Amino acid sequence: MHPLRALVLVGLLAFVTPLSAQTVGPTDGPGRLVSRLETLAQNGTVEQLAQLVTPRVNDEALADFALDFFVPGVTRTVAVERDRLPLADVPAGEGYSLIVEVFAEVGTRARVISARVDIQRTSDATADDWKIVDIERLSIVEGLYQLRMDSARAYAARNLTIDAEDVRLTLLEGSAFLVESDGGVTGMVLVGRGEMRFTPPSATEKSQLRIFGGSENLVTAFDGVYVRFNPSEYLERVSTDVLVPQAVDRRVSGKAEEIFERERPKAYSIDMSEVSRNQWFLLPPAGDFVSEIRTRRFGTLTYSKSSKQVEDISFFSRERHRTISIYSSIENLRSHGLSYNEDDLVDFDVTGYEIDADIDPRRETIEGRARITIRSRAPVLSTLTLRLAEGLNVTSVTSVELGRLLFFRVRNQNGLIVNLPRLLPAGVPLTLVVSYGGHVSPQLVNTEGVQAGPDETLPNPSNVSNPSEPSFMLSNRAYWYPQNAVTDYATARIRITVPDEYRVVASGQSVTGNLDLRDLIAVRGQGRTFIFSVTEPARYLALVVSRFVRVVDTSLTVSTAARTNGAASVQHRIALSVEANPGQTRRARELALRTEDIMGFYGTLMNDVPYPSLTLALVENELPGGHSPAYAVILNAQPTTTSQLFWRNDPAAFNGFPEFFLAHELAHQWWGHAVGWNNYHEQWLSEGFAQYFSALYAQKLRGDGAFTDMLRQFRRWALAQSDQGPVFLGYRLGHVKDDSRIFRALVYNKGAGVLHMLRRLVGDKAFFDGLRRFYTDFKFQKAGTPDLQRAFEQESGQSLGRFFDRWIYGSDIPRIRYATSIGQGEVVVRFEQDAAEVFDVPVTVTITYADGRVSDVMVPVTSAREEHRLKTTGVVRNVRINRDSAALAEFGSL
User: What is the side-by-side order of every strand in the sheet holding 471-474?
Assistant: First the structure.
């Protein structure tokens, strides 16, 4: 659920593709009227416009529209009809409501005005004459500019500097060319011998730079640079005093032109190819900056500062598709903090979805219609940005309250921008209906499982006698329905139609009978329809289509303790269904029993079960793993018992605990769904918790040995990979190296190990009470590490700031030296650690007696030097430290 935001476009308002014009030509009456509007926009007057309207349009409304419609000094106009619907209460073919877009150029500047134009045929039915009966300006896109680089005007530069936050570009010797617009100098092209210095302030970002380039500050040579900035900042960012006009060298200017042509479309570009042969651009807002830096060692590197993002500074490699750094500027860090809630940054909340879709998994297509109920959060809202897969074509966007709406697709960002005809105040509800369809790429099920790496043996397809049954999953990263830009808790109703041989498992409780979705009728083919109701809020909606058979359809009861003293226990009744590919029915029956046991165990631990139903879908795949949306678990099962995949070295490979993936995925119903995470930095609140809960279940099912084996694996991977970054880095862990095992080692395993250490420091009662407090306080909300810290501090009475600072926000591993001595009736243990960075570490001291008895004592090590005297009850044979691997520390003798 975490697309790498800065890989391609840096989150800028760029590459906006307008709607395709309708195929209605200008040869019919309404088309000719649109052509007349185009002519008037360039050469007409208000009086001529007035001749096209009827008296029903009042003078004031016409005058207001004319102020936007007529652009002084216009040199070229294009009018495009975007949409046409019949007018109500008018005979068929006699009246239409048109959406018209007028593009107006004024030299090298342009703007676009969109309008609703209601027209009717005149009373003379024999005449092909149409008049405007109502007109309303819907929106204006101002500030479009052409960019130009004057290759005939060059400047010699020696030690020219261009600065943005944490980056300095220095042209040691070479030539500079200005990039200009009617708004002023908005960029430069540098050619010659230069140096880039990128110096992020935080230790975390420095560590990622070290992984990428071998140094905590990236200093590298460049031979070409393209930069964009707001014209008002030209003199502030550029050391213009070293620019000296020089004669143009055609070889040098040719290099500059090549850089300009290649790099300029990558940011702030508006695709207006339907109405103009020129390229059009927005000016960067004040404070924004983007640079494309052609280095000798790393290829082209991109630095961006984008005010539209909380983490507004990004640094990445386009060629390698690698994000190297993303972080907040000093100003944003001060205002938002590290654990910002992404919900606070969006302009609206989605409160409900109604989705009606026809899906063909064979062709990987969907035809759908979605009703989205939103509530504005911004003081005023003029546009909405929704996520929708780029391959899906949007045919219409309407509003129950506002009628038809103008919309744009955002290229390369799975985006849909909807313009509102008037400002929407905060708190006001709005209902959108979006019709869409086309090809959609499925999401792999094994998003949380083991993935094939360089030391795994991959199967030879020719040796697989029983290939996997195909499945088609659409979930949080497929963007298969229009949704908020961030995951957003909402209720939903879903109706999915698939070909007859398929079945559907989806978020929500299966509903029999009809589901009233009012006018939401997708383009429906022949097939079977499945209906689901999401009554408890879900962060996102998902489904999987395959040749399933229903194996189990039952219910289970989970008894949990009362939430208030003196009250009776609570009985949670959960509808449980299991669907499986035909070759997995026997395995599915076994897993149904295990699912009941796990759900009961977790429900008892947490005193709650978040969702009223659960469907386990067992699909075939050579790769182990699974995915867990709300209300469902989709689990991979190998199609044969003779799979040639062998997993030897992965953080999520627990050979002694075959139930791991099921236990992990079921835990996500509580952690990741019932309680979400504020932003990608907080993924450990989902994955680390699910990993630890699976270890708790391993202990229940298979005993202390299995639990200790998992702790040992947690520790081994945490110690091996912690130098790759802190747990708090989230999905970015391992990204620079393209090694997903690093992410699992730290977010999954180290996160789980940290929870176990916390449990040992505060004690079992405070730990589980703290978990339940955290869960209850943030059920169906997003939370962050500070929220978890507060819950545990309230239950334990301890200050835990240093604990979380070291283990979650830091990447160091403590090195603890120790010495033991056996005395009369006691064992003395001394510990030392680095006084400059003290960790809180619960350490197990194991005392083995001569008669074979073994005693484990937990010793909290919380200072640079300390001594503990442990009472003994017999002759001591030996003393061991951290035998159970519960402490994520390196130990050595004093």
Answer: 471-474, 543-546, 503-506
Exposure of 90 in the CB half-sphere (CA atoms within 13 A): 16
Tell me the two tokens of residue 277: 């042969």
What's the number of CA atoms in the CB half-sphere (13 Å) around residue 498?
A: 22
Q: What's the one-letter identity of residue 610?
A: P
366: number of Cβ within 10 Å: 26
pLDDT band at 461 (very low <50, low <70, confident <90, very high): very low
CB burial of 494-523 (b: ≥16 within 10 Å; e: otherwise) equals: bbbbbeeebbbbbbbbbeeeebebeebebe
Q: At what angle do helices 751-762 and 764-777 cross, to 10 degrees?
A: 120
Residues in CB range of 451: below 8 A, 6 or more apart: 623, 625, 650, 740, 741
- Rounded to whole angstroms, the Cα distance separating 484 from 470 reads 30
Q: Is the dihedral of CA 753, 690, 720, 809 positive or negative?
A: negative
Residues 6+ away with beta carbon under 8 Å from 66: 46, 49
Q: How far apart are CA 525 and CA 522, in angstroms?
A: 9
Residue with tokens 């007109």: 135
Task: Please provide the DSSP assignment of 750-811 as one string.
Answer: IHHHHHHHHHHHH-HHHHHHHHHHHHHHTTTEEE-HHHHHHHHHHHH----HHHHIIIII--
| Sheet with strand 876-881: strands edge to edge | 854-861, 841-849, 876-881
Count the neighbouring beta carbons within 10 Å of the beta carbon of residue 243. 18
C-alpha distances (whole Å) from 479 to each of 436, 628, 668, 672 are 12, 16, 20, 18
Tokens of residue 683, six digits: 């993924």
Q: Smallest Cα–Cα separation from 449: which of 668, 715, 723? A: 668
Tell me the CA distances in angstroms from 351 to 298, 376, 485, 744, one per residue in order.
45, 11, 14, 33
Residue 638's pLDDT is 80
Which amino acid is located at 732 in the chain?
A: R
CA neighbor of 409 nearest in space, from 432, 382, 431, 391: 391
pLDDT digits 0-9 by tens, 38-53: 999 999 999 999 999 9
- % the chain with pLDDT above 90: 74
Nearest in space to 491 (alpha carbons), one of 530, 531, 536, 532: 536
pTM: 0.89
Helix (H, G, I), strand (E, B) or coil at 173: strand
- How many angstroms separate the CA atoms of 608 and 773, rounded? 12
End-to-end CA, the chain: 46
How many alpha carbons lie under 13 Å from residue 255 in its C-beta half-sphere? 16
Residue 24, token pair as written in the block: 């209605």
Tell me what pLDDT residue 273 has.
81
- Dihedral, 152, 157, 163, 169 alpha carbons, nearest 10: 100
User: Which regions of 547-612 does DSSP assign to beta strands (E)?
Assistant: 549-560, 570-580
Span of 265-274, 434-443, 466-475 with lowest mean pLDDT: 265-274
Q: What does R_g of the chain's alpha carbons equal in angstroms?
A: 32
DSSP 813-873: --EEEEEEEEETTEEEEEEE--TTS---EEEEEEEEETTS-EEEEEEEE-SSEEEEEEE-S
Residues counted in the chain? 894
Rounded Cα distance between 637 and 644, Å, is 14
Tell the residue number behind the tokens 């017999």, with chain if given: 874
How far apart are the C-alpha atoms of 260 and 221, rounded to whole Å?
A: 19
Complete domains list, the chain, with CATH: 16-145 (3.10.450), 148-336 (no CATH), 675-809 (1.10.390.10), 815-893 (2.60.40.1910)
DSSP string, 128-145: --EEEEEEEEEEEEEEEE
**Spatial contact of 230 and 288, defined as CB atoms under 8 Å apart:** yes
| Interatomic CA distance for residues 5 and 23, integer angstroms | 35
